[in-house]
Structures are given as C-alpha cells and as structure tokens.
Amino acid sequence: MHLHLLPLLALCGAGCVVAGPSYSLRGSWRVSNGNGSLELPGTVPGCVHSALYQRGLIQDPYYRFNDLRYRWISLDNWTYSTDFKIPFNVSEWQKVRLIFEGVDTVAQILFNNVTLGKTDNMFTGYSFDITGVVRDVNSLQLRFQSAVQYAERQSKAHTNYSVPPNCPPKEQKGECHVNFIRKVKALSNAWALRLLCDWLPSWPKESMGPDVGIRSYSLCLLNACVLSFLGAVDNASREWNVEIEASFDVVSSKPVGGQVTVAIPKLQTRQTFDIELQQRQRTVKLLVKISKDIAVELWWPRGHGSQTGFNMTVLFVLDGGLNIERSVKVYFRTVQLIEESIKGSPGLSFYFKINGLPIFLKGSNWIPADSFQDRVTPELLQVLLRSVVDANMNTLRVWGGGIYEQDGFYELCNELGIMVWQDFMFACALYPVGRSFVESVRAEVAYQIRRLKSHPSIIIWSGNNENEVALRVNWFHVNSSDLETYFKDYVTLYVRNIREIVLSEDKSRPFIVSSPTNGVKTMAEGWISNDPNSNHYGDVHFYDYSNDCWNWKMFPKARFVSEYGYQSWPSFSTLEKVSSKEDWSYSSGFALHRQHHGNGNDEMLEQVQLHFRLPRRTDPLRKFKDMIYLTQVMQAQCIKTETEFYMRSRSEIVDGQGHTMGALYWQLNDIWQAPSWASLEYGGKWKMLHYFAQRFFAPLLPVGFEDKGVFYVYGVSDLHRDYKTRLTVRLHTWSSLTPLCSVVTSSAVMKAGEAAILYQEPVPDLLKRCGGCTRESCVVSFHLSTHVDVFSPTNYHFLSSLKDAQGLVKANITVTISQKGDLFVFDLRTSAVAPFVWLDVGSIPGRFSDNGFLMIKKMRSVLFYPWKLTSKSELQQAFTVTSLTDTY
Ligand SMILES: *[C@@H]1O[C@H](CO)[C@@H](O)[C@H](O)[C@H]1NC(C)=O
Ligand SMILES: *[C@@H]1O[C@H](CO)[C@@H](O)[C@H](O)[C@H]1NC(C)=O
Ligand SMILES: *[C@@H]1O[C@H](CO)[C@@H](O)[C@H](O)[C@H]1NC(C)=O
Ligand SMILES: *[C@@H]1O[C@H](CO)[C@@H](O)[C@H](O)[C@H]1NC(C)=O
Ligand SMILES: *[C@@H]1O[C@H](CO)[C@@H](O)[C@H](O)[C@H]1NC(C)=O
Ligand SMILES: *[C@@H]1O[C@H](CO)[C@@H](O)[C@H](O)[C@H]1NC(C)=O
Ligand SMILES: *[C@@H]1O[C@H](CO)[C@@H](O)[C@H](O)[C@H]1NC(C)=O
Ligand SMILES: *[C@@H]1O[C@H](CO)[C@@H](O)[C@H](O)[C@H]1NC(C)=O
Ligand SMILES: *[C@@H]1O[C@H](CO)[C@@H](O)[C@H](O)[C@H]1NC(C)=O
After folding, report:
1. Is 463 helix (H, G, I), strand (E, B) or coil?
2. Looking at residues 338-344, what average pLDDT do you find?
3. Which of 356, 614, 623, 786 has the fewest CB atoms within 10 Å of its CB?
4. Which residues belong to any copy of the Beta-mannosidase-like galactose-binding domain (predicted)?
C-alpha cells in the first residue's frame, strides 16, 4: 500500500511568464499546398481542413462521404507561413526564443530562410533559440510533410523487423503505420476518419503568454509552463506541504540572486525563500509547509464533497529589478490505489481511496471531441463535461488513442469534481523503440507530466491502452519466435522509459503500465501478465455483442471494469446535418460507411431482436427513425443491466469474485456523427443511454435482477452516512395505469458506500401474490426512500422480453409546454402504460431532466434545460414523442 498525501495545484497549466516582452503569432497566416496550386489564409491555431472549408474550397469534411473524398488533403504537403514585425526592440534582450506549444505533426521550421529544426511529435512543445537570426521584420514557415507518407517512410526505414499493425482493418477506413508517428491515433481506430489534419495546436491558454510566438528575455526566463506544484505529507507529522517547481532558463553568466515569496492567504501561509540561479540552471524547487494548526479543506470528487481550491501567489523578486508574479489555484487531496488481499477471493483488490475514503469510480471513457480540434470550443467542453456530472458520474478515462486534452478540459474537471484516469497516448498497437522514437516519447512524457501534474482531477497515469493484452494474446499474429523481441520492446518503452520518468517526476498519483492490467501482479510477472484481463486483479475491458445483454451472468465480476459497451445510432437530427435523403435507411451505403466497427450494424440489429420487435411502420423515413430509436433503447438497456451488475457487486464475494469498485463504460462522447458506443452525440445531445446513466449512477440506487427464478433487489449507496431505508416494490399490468399491488419493506439500514440485498422473492410467489399477473402481462417497479427526504430513482424489472409483453396498447401521449424562468416544463399525459418514452426537440441544444422512461402513471412533468436561448414555440414546433408501441 502506498500513501500519497499531496496537494496539487493547477498553476501553470499554462502559459509563461516572461521577463521581457513577448509577441503572439496567433492569427491569420498563409497556407499553401505542395505544388503551390492552392494558397489561402489560415488561422493559427487551426487546421488545413478548416482553412479550406472556411474559404469554401471544400464542404464540411464530415458531410456524407467527404472523409474519403478529402483524403488528398492528408496526402499533400502543406506550408504555413507568415511575415511579421516585432513591435518591440529585440536587440534590447539577450535572448529571444520562438515557441510552439504543439505542432501537428511533421514540419520543418524555417525562420528568415534559416532552418531552425523540425518537429515530429504533436504531443510535445517546441522552442527554438532565434537570438542570432531575429530581425525587426521576419518571415516564418512551417513546411508540413504529409503525416501519412511520413509514417509510411518511417515504417519502411525500420528494416530489422516489422512493427504491426501495418494497417487498420478495412472497415475502419484509417491510415497505415500510425504507430510510427506521434500523432492522434483515434484517426486510425474505430473512429478512423481519413482526416489527418496538419495543424498548429496549442495546449495552454494564451492568456498567460503566447503559445505560438516569440519570447524575449535577459537574465532569465521563468517558464511557467513547467511551473508545477506537488506536495507530500511528512509521514510522521502528516502536515500538508506544497512543493513548487519552477523552471528557468538563465542567460546571465553571473548567478542571479533574489527572493521568492509564496502566499496562500486563506491558509494564513506566507513564506519567503532566498534563491540563487546559476547559469543554465533548469529548476528551482521550494517546499512550503502548511501549519498543522490550520484546517485544510480538501478537493473531493463529485458526490463526495466540495472542490475547494485556494489562491496562491508566487512572487519572484530577482536582482536587476526583475519581478515575476503568478497567481494560481492550489488544491489538496490524496490518492491511493489499493491492491491488497481480500478475504475469500484469490488475487488482490483494485480500488481508489481519495483522501482516505474508498470511492466507487463511476463514469465513462473520453475520446477527442472532434477530429478538428479547432472546433472544440470552451462552450462545447462545458456542455460535455457538465453532462458528465449531470449524469452522476465522477470519473472519465482519457483514452490512450486520442490526445492529451487542452488545459481547459482539466481545469473544468477540477472545478466539477471529475476524476481523470489519464492514459499516455499509446493504443492497440506495437511501437518501435528506435533511439529517436524513444527520445521523442521521453520528451513528450516529461512535457505532459509537467503540464498536467498540478491538476487534482488526474488521479492515475496509465502507460497505454490494451497493449499488454495485445501482446499476451498476440492480436497481431507475430511469429511466436519473435514474441520475445516485442516483449522486450514493450518493457523498454513503457517500463524503462515512460514509467521511469513518471516515477521521478510525479509522486502524487499512482502509475499503471497498461489498461487492462493486473497491477502489481503484472509487475511480478515481468510486465506482461498471463491474463491481463483477470477478474482477480487490476482492471478489465469487456465486450460481447452476440450474447443476450439482459443476462447479467455473462458479465465479469471483476475488481474494476474500465471499458465495456454497446453501440447505437445517433438521433436523426444529428445525422440529418451530414446526410441527404438517399442515406436515410438502415441499409444505405451511408449507414454502412459510417459504421467503422466490423459487423456493427448487424450486431445492433441482432441484439435489438432478442427483446424487441423490429419496426413495422412502412414509411421509409419513419422506419429509419424507429430503427435509430430501437438501437438507443437496446444500448441503454444493455449498459444499464451491465452497470447495475457492477454497482451491486462492490460489497460481496461470490465464488471468489467481486469487490467491484469501478465501472467506466465505453464511451462518453463522439468524434463525428456516426453509430458508436457513445452516450453523447457529436455536439453533446444526450442519447437515451445518458439519461439511463443519470439513473443507474444515482447516489442511492435500487438494483433488481433475477437469479434462478428468484427476484432480488439490492440497495447501492454512494452516500456518506448510513440511512434507514424502505423499499417499495410494485407490480403493474401493461394494460393499466393503476398498480396491481405493492409491498413496502420495513426499514433497514443502508450502509454508506455499500451494496446489500434488501428484498428477495421467488417470481412465481410474487406473481401469485399479485393475483392475475403473468411474466408477460406484468412489470415490476421499485424505489428506495429514507427517513429523511432522500429518494432513489424509480427502477424497473422486466419479467419477459418486451416483444412478448401482453396488454401493451398504443399510448397517446400529449404534452403541454410552459416556460418557468430559464427552464421549460413539459407536462405529459398518457392514455396507456408506455415503455421507453422518448422526448425529442431535434437540434435545439439542451437536455431533459429525465427521458427514455417507463411511463406508468397518467401524468408526468419533465423539465427541459436549454443550453442556448430558445422559446416555447420553437420547442413546440420541434417536439416529438415516441414510445415503444409507436414502432409497431
Ligand atoms: C511531400 O514532400 C515529400 C518529401 O519532402 C515528397 O517526397 C513528396 O513528393 C511531397 N508530396 C507532394 C504531394 O508534394
Ligand atoms: C497540385 O496539387 C493538387 C493537389 O494535390 C493537384 O490536384 C494538382 O493537380 C497539382 N497541380 C499540378 C500542376 O501538379
Ligand atoms: C534597440 O536596442 C539597441 C540595444 O539597446 C539599440 O542599440 C538600438 O538603438 C535600439 N533601436 C531602436 C530603434 O530603438
Ligand atoms: C529566402 O531565400 C530565397 C531564395 O533562396 C530568396 O529569394 C528570399 O529573398 C529569401 N528571403 C529572405 C527573407 O531572406
Ligand atoms: C511514507 O509511508 C509510506 C507507506 O507507509 C512509505 O512507503 C514511504 O516510504 C514513507 N515515506 C517516507 C518519506 O518516510
Ligand atoms: C482567487 O483568485 C481569483 C482570480 O484571481 C479571484 O477572482 C478570487 O476572488 C480569489 N479568491 C479569493 C478568496 O481571494
Ligand atoms: C536493428 O538491429 C541492429 C542490430 O541488432 C541494432 O543495432 C539496431 O539498433 C536495430 N535497429 C532498430 C531500429 O531497432
Ligand atoms: C513469420 O515467419 C515467416 C517465416 O519465417 C516469415 O515469412 C514471416 O514474414 C514472419 N512474419 C512476421 C510478421 O514477421
Ligand atoms: C390523443 O389525445 C388527445 C388529447 O386527449 C386527443 O385530442 C387526440 O385526438 C388523441 N389522439 C389519438 C390518436 O387518439
């Protein structure tokens, strides 16, 4: 067990405090292609596709089949150039640097016709000394090489042995050899868009100083981008410390003396340190102790407390009249990953303690929000991350096939209390370990840790996605005699390099080498475990599309499930924007083209058919919309069953398995408008699954299921104290809006943070007790209430497939919409019991308070929270309601 007591602050994140003036190169540049036939203005930060689109030279790259049509863009070379006059006298400064916080990806950089160097890793920052070449008026060129061609050449040059996979499966429509280039990988994965974009990205926020631009200084430069803080508690005194690390570039040949004053007014802390910077000194480390007499309010994950942070100022007063001040927010929290033996179960636990409290991680996996990162606005991040906490999640895993997200992402996670499981960007592939590749990775890892470690939201680093398991089961079919080489390379990259850097740079959170992994067991087995997906150790990833997802027995009773999922189609209003009439059927070329997962569309259909009737309505558009609706119903119901199984498995060991402490489904968000595992559509609209998540991740949850003909209800609590709880179980017939019978249990104590059986009854007894019920004619609903006014959502249990349900009739659901302040109230009235009632307002941004529910009472009110200004009449016009029998 490791105890890390560390305060963290999001200081830098960002930007740089410089001694001298700086000049930003954000703005309009010129973009031209390889042979010069195209020349157009392009924004920095920005992307070639966006520049072409804005000029009207291409259509929306996401429209219909444009991802294929515009493949030429990523096969061409592109040059970004600009001429600029520096508005200050650079000669007054001893040193001038050109800064790029990220260049995507392979570019030669020419400054006033002098080659400064090249870039080949989009995940790291670059900085060039231009003191000797800078003038008043300057020209700058970034000559991008086609990333596709570069990757291919790198792969060809690696002659010793092949490093698979060479190309992704055909249906993924991705580019080859992406493991040879440090560039976003999602583009060759199941989201594979042939839309590799050369662009100038920026991680930090510009408000702190230019992320693309010029910095000048004499004496020294404080590089705030690598100003970070970590604290460690003295084990004996258990005092909070703040460890501050500032990086400098000292030009002066004489030592630069001075003082640093660190103040955290709210914690009555103010300390001054004498420092002396030596030439070329890199870092200054300071340790600020918080007195034990001061109560430090901690940062807590969502649902477990507040996200308190404290303002801290760091003031450097250096000889020569140089004052540099930074104000940042510092947070205090600890993380432990607990791997210890469990009574009655072989193996080890795998769960997180935050501030000493064991916490069940509930959430999902995050992928890049757009192929074109310049379309990811702060508003979009806000919508997506608010939706995370609105659905009662507390965790996101930033998946290793995407990107290290921008600072704003982690800042929002800090503020909202979202824990982040951060992968390094390696996924589903073997990687080369040639010297220059490894050097580049080392720079990337060091850069990202320094950039990100001040964020309390990040609770774990993970070396890669699925590469341990890929080697163990030999996904890429390498010759068994060669396996040893690949094993060795694996250890070289993730253990001898990445792990080594993480352990030396960041002691404030745990590191695991892969996901899924067996944690310390993997380590003991030489880093590639015999069964990395074991239910007895570490985390697992689990997918099974062919078996019946209503049967919870197929799911792994594992310690932690960090990936699992089912696909569905996004709503028609989302698809409509990127398709035309001939695309609107489930078997269209478009439907097939957008499906990047092997047999995905058929798998959805087969899973739907297990429990639902296929659409009967004949109008082709109606039928397509009904299919979309049914795939969403299926996905929501499947993931509900699976998640509830994990949620209720936390406190028990059955046949040696259990103690599940994490459920992160695949996946939260979408990168474009296509069928996928996401619960949020491209742009942020909630699918039915997301509304289900809001219920199945509720802090107080009743879970119903059957085992050998007995109906059970478990209570699951993420609350911080014990509550006296009552369970109400009702039986309803499909044919009537009046419940048939109801039982209320006597109150039992629901323990904080635990799951326990509250109710069990053989199904035949239950049916008999409620005279006249059969499995086909009735449905069970149940909820929890406490002695104070805390309620669970109402849950339900189907006793038969919906396609066999008897007594269901077409429900006539009518609505009255009214405005109440910033919200809208939808008063619904139904003529009959209606399963999976789906309210839809098309493209009007916003979400409902609940949706996709079983309507079992005549009336129900639902709120609509708009994300943009809208009106009652706009909502009325866009509104449609669908329930299951509408598709009959
Ligand atoms: C792009 O540049 C590479 C190397 O500089 C060259 O081999 C290739 O032909 C160029 N492609 C185009 C389309 O100009
Ligand atoms: C220049 O490149 C573009 C894009 O690759 C291509 O369409 C065009 O034919 C080329 N023109 C010449 C003169 O080679
Ligand atoms: C710029 O600074 C240098 C060095 O201090 C000085 O010699 C020069 O005159 C200045 N140029 C202008 C235009 O002020
Ligand atoms: C750069 O070099 C080219 C040719 O080598 C020349 O025509 C051009 O004037 C030079 N530009 C500058 C800014 O020196
Ligand atoms: C603090 O305690 C942990 C666990 O007991 C131990 O691993 C670590 O070495 C200790 N640190 C110091 C500085 O004593
Ligand atoms: C902390 O700093 C922020 C931004 O500088 C400021 O708006 C806020 O008022 C400060 N809070 C306190 C308690 O001083
Ligand atoms: C290829 O093999 C040689 C000899 O074993 C080795 O020196 C070299 O580093 C290898 N190159 C790569 C790219 O692995
Ligand atoms: C496996 O071995 C065979 C025969 O030695 C060879 O032809 C083939 O290229 C090897 N495959 C890989 C992926 O290295
Ligand atoms: C549905 O109910 C409304 C209001 O009760 C009624 O006006 C309407 O005719 C009904 N529609 C159908 C198809 O029965």
Report:
1. coil
2. 97
3. 356
4. 29-185
